[in-house]
């Protein structure tokens, strides 16, 4: 697993979720962001071209969205900071920069799911292989403070999904529009980064079929045959916190996931309509390049 400074990946552990604010709190936040947005810009700063770290961590989550089976996994944690001209890995994630303007970027986006074996709801059915998703993400910078410590984005990732096996199998596409708020040094806590992200999920019939359909040959009295369809797949709220110390990096995330209203909510494989997942990690910095490059503050 690769952890990047302060931002979690969709289903992978770096970033996550808190409860939605009240209308009053949201208005105050938006007003503050607008004030920051119209402040004068600041200069770029210097960072190492490359930093690499290794460490350990743990995550706990359901086998798949809607499963009632939960597992906790110890994980090796990789830390990566790379400030290349095209490929970047930083607090905004691992991404390839395809197009960049002050108000919009076109990036490469990715996601992973873990394999599912011996799940109670899927007893007697084929195991689910790990999947990898990749595709473009059009990211609009709605608001940004003058000092770069507050960013509010609209991110529109569209990804094609494939199983991880000798001959990968295409299993459909996903679309996860989301609002993302990134904070540096929140409430005066120097060096800390906080990421909050929320939005709906959508996928085509083929993707939902892989996870939620039940073929006639696997139907039982308690698990009737079912055919999943395309459309709305629920809503996620994510939140993460991290800090880079001189010799190591620490981070944690939490995510709240609801399937209320999802097109596959009545699948017999869906046993829970909502759940929490969480994880944490620590990585020790083992290499920092001597070459410094300018990056936006």
Notes on the protein architecture:
The chain is mostly beta strands and 297 residues long. The protein has one domain (2-291): Outer membrane phospholipase (ompla), Chain C. The protein has 2 helices and 16 strands. Strands 1, 3, 4, 5, 6, 7, 8, 9, 10, 11, 12, 13, 14 and 15 form a 14-stranded mixed β-sheet that branches. The chain is globular and about 60 Å long. The two termini are 27 Å apart.
Strand content: over 45%
Query: What shape does the CA trace take?
Result: globular
Taking Cα atoms only, what radius of gyration do you get, to the nearest Å? Answer: 20 Å
Question: How far apart lie the N and C ends?
Answer: 27 Å
SSE pattern, N- to C-terminal: EHEEEEEEEEEEEHEEEE
For the record, the count of structural domains works out to 1
Q: Indicate the structural class.
A: mainly beta
Helical run tally = 2
User: What is the level-2 CATH architecture name?
Assistant: Beta Barrel
Q: Tell me about the largest β-sheet.
A: 14 strands, mixed
Low-confidence stretches: 1-43
Q: What fold name stands as the CATH topology?
A: Outer membrane phospholipase (ompla), Chain C
Number of strands: 16
Mean pLDDT: 82
CATH class: Mainly Beta
The level of helicity is under 10%
